[in-house]
Fold this protein.
Amino acid sequence: MNATMRRVVIGTAAVSMALSVAACGKAGDSKKSDSSSSSSSGGKTIGLLLPDSVTARYEKFDHPYFEAQVKSLCADCTVDYANAAGDAAKQAQQVSTMVTKGVKVIVISAQDSAAIKSSIDAAVAKGVKVVAYDRLAQGKVSAYVSFDNVKVGELQGQALLDALGSKATTKSKVVMINGDDADPNAGQFKQGAHKALDGKVNIAYEQSGLWKDTVAAQKMKAAITQLGAKNIAGVYSANDGMAGGIATTLKGAGISGIPLTGQDAELAGIQRIVAGTQSSTVYKAFKPEADAAATIAVDLLQGKSISSLATTTQTSGSGDQVPSQLLTPVSVTKANIKDTVIKDGLYTVSDICTSEFAKACKAANLQ
């Protein structure tokens, strides 16, 4: 393994790296959505374009981690940052603005992977290198950095089966609430989950929750109406944010004790796992992801080969074969909270075990 990959691999649930990472959570729209961390332009500026400010990870973790890694690798490099605030047209304009400034490398997590294609291809035509971050954008991108998203879905599906135990039969009705179809990751999570679940349970209701807790809650309510509260054995939720809305709906319908998956290891998700209202999540260390993207961006800026970093390829929605670096996710249940998110410094026991969760934490041996 090349030494430049030193902070980008997670092998097993017993993760030994000291990471400061975080999970996707909910936050209000940030006033930083149009902001840049640098007004510099030209050859030593790397652009970073993130998709929204509702998902907490982008402003709180991805942006600062990325910028710190760039500075550590290239002392005279700057990062020009902007957030699309959930607006695909706005993100397209941000790409154009950076090209006009003379930015030579742009790292982008696409708000809409298909809609951004023309903007990416226009940038590439002017000599800009584009790195797809977390989501595989369409177009002539030079590299892609993310987690193995099919594996994420497999972990989620298997965790649901494990939680169902002997109830995991083809007669057991499971509800699936997937992510937003505009996000290519959502399709890969779905693919992996079906790989784990198909033929083992009855997926009786499946809809997109658009990565929104409110939409997921509505879809869960519709599933309960359609299937009946007593007939639902478990729920697949593609991430923790939606799992929060689903858990509230389940509680309101008097449904308890059934498995509910998630993703991102956000604090609220971990607390629900401790409390028993969510059965699992998937832990993806965002610092290694940001570090990897920053390293590739700096190498591209400096004209270096990235072949030792992007060791596999992924096919984008536009049919392009993209050199890729995929990190390994980890499933988290109540049994390994200590060995994952606490051990890595993502959260402390006191972060998780607030007064509301003190009793549950004691029962889970977290105090």
About this structure: The first strand starts at residue 45 and ends at 50. Residues 1-41 have pLDDT under 50 and may be disordered. The first helix runs from residue 56 to 73. The CA atoms of residues 25 and 56 lie 5 Å apart.
